[in-house]
Structures are given as structure tokens and as C-alpha cells.
Specification:
Order of helices and strands: EHHHEEEEHHEEHEEEE
Distance between the termini: 10 Å
Largest sheet: 5 strands, mixed
Oligomer: single chain
Number of helices: 6
Number of strands: 11
Shape: elongated
Strand content: 15-25%
Length: 160
């Protein structure tokens, strides 16, 4: 089982990519226009003590604390499950994903790594990142000879 964590997931979702996904799902154009208005023309600035930075436009991220934010996030990552389909199972919960498979042979282990690679490729395509430091692998086995190491972008996932 591989536990993953998306790095600043709600902050990193590009607005244009999200809108393109909404169109690809066949959502009503008026609803998409409303969502665009909700996301676009947002600005932010930083305050340190009594000094403020200039306002800058926000081109990515879903407003947190809104009712619409979590729904938009789920829509954005919805197709991830379709891309991890070599034989492992993937369960999503908020910005975490659990990828697992029953490992009976070394080929099963290779399949799990292949699905982990597919998950990583999807993340790169859709401009999200895994927080590799928070990704963990765990094995439950009576056959320790089947325990293997898994990696994300060349970094070995820590076994717990």
C-alpha cells in the first residue's frame, strides 16, 4: 500500500485547466461561466506588520472555506482513477490518495510501481505535485521476500 499526499493541492490547481476539464465533462456553459467568475479576477497581497505588498492576480488555486471549492477539487482530480489502471486500486480522500495491490509475485510488485508511475505522470500533466516526504509505503505480509521498495520520480518511498 502506498499512501500519498498532494502538495498544497487546493492552492495549485490552475484555473484554465480546471475550466477545460469542466467543458470536457459537458457541463452547461452558463454554469462554467459562473464558476469562471467565481475563480477569476481574484487578487492577493502579503502583509508584514503594517507594510503591504502590491496586489497580484491569482491564476491558480481554489478558494478554501467555500462550499464550491471541494467540489471543484474533486472534479479536477476525478479522472486520476482512470489513469491508474494497470491492476492496482486507488482510493481518493480529499488531497490524499491510497494506492494498493495484493502482491503475490514480483510481477504484482512491478504493476504497483507502474501504477505509481502513472499517478506521478498524471500529476505532472495536470500541474500538481506529490509531497514525497509525506508519501509512505506499508506492506502486510507473511512472505517478507516479496517486500520491495517503491519510488516516486526516482525517490524511494519510505516504508513504515
Amino acid at each position: 500500500m502506498i499512501y500519498t499526499d498532494l502538495e498544497k493541492a487546493f492552492d495549485k490547481i490552475p484555473h484554465k485547466s480546471l475550466i477545460n476539464k469542466l467543458f470536457s465533462y459537458g457541463l452547461n456553459k452558463d454554469i462554467i461561466s459562473w464558476i469562471e467568475a467565481f475563480l477569476n479576477n481574484r487578487k492577493q497581497r502579503v502583509r508584514i506588520k503594517s507594510i503591504f505588498s502590491d496586489w497580484v492576480p491569482v491564476g491558480s488555486g481554489i478558494p478554501q472555506g467555500s462550499l464550491l471549492g471541494p467540489i471543484l477539487f474533486v472534479i479536477y482530480i476525478n479522472d486520476l482513477v482512470e489513469h491508474v489502471n494497470n491492476g492496482s486500486d486507488l482510493y481518493l480522500y480529499a488531497d490524499d490518495a491510497k494506492l494498493f495491490s495484493f502482491i503475490k509475485t514480483m510481477e504484482d510488485s512491478a504493476t504497483l510501481q507502474k501504477d505509481l508511475n502513472s499517478l506521478t505522470q498524471w500529476m505532472e500533466t495536470w500541474l500538481l505535485r506529490l509531497n514525497i516526504g509525506k508519501c509512505k509505503a506499508i506492506s502486510y505480509s507473511r512472505r517478507p521476500e516479496l517486500n520491495t521498495n517503491y519510488s516516486i520520480s526516482g525517490v524511494t518511498v519510505e516504508n513504515i
